[in-house]
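note to self: dont lose this again. the chain is below, predicted strucutre after it. 59 aa total, dont forget to put it in the shared folder this time
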Amino acid sequence: METIDEDGNIVTDNKSFLQIWEREFQKLFDKAEAFEGANFDEQFYEEVKKFKLELQQQF
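---
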């Protein structure tokens, strides 16, 4: 797998890849917390579960 770091470099090693994704997901959760009482529907929940499972299977 690969992703791009904050400097625009391609990152392929698993440790750095996971650190980048962790940071990006944390940013999303921080924004989601701003919507206190937000109600995510069942479709959203199922998509998140699917994505999580796919990531877990790759490691």
